[in-house]
Design brief:
The protein has 83 residues and is mainly alpha-helical. The chain is built from three helices and two strands. β1 and β2 form a beta hairpin.
Length: 83
């Protein structure tokens, strides 16, 4: 019961405070310069993140392919010497 009451008090207090509502960037005019700036910042951060992840993927792909090529090119040893 106390957890439900605590949750209810938290929700009421959150909705009652005007600062907890959406700002102009989220709730306002899409043609506002502040909104355009925020959208540009989000796009920039997404591009940097995805390019970094793509670079790591390509690095591991090349390392895997290089190790595979070395493994296939290595001579096979048998009990009597090289095959």
């Amino acid at each position: 019961m106390s957890a439900l009451r605590t949750m209810l008090i938290f929700v009421v207090m959150t909705l009652a405070v005007p600062a907890a509502r959406a700002c102009e960037v989220c709730f306002g005019d899409p043609n506002d310069p502040q909104t355009k700036g925020m959208n540009g910042a989000i796009i920039t951060l997404m591009i940097i993140t995805y390019l970094t992840l793509a670079g790591l993927f390509v690095m591991f792909l090349f390392a895997w392919r290089r190790a595979r090529a070395k493994r296939l090119a290595a001579p096979i040893e048998t009990e009597g010497g090289l095959a």
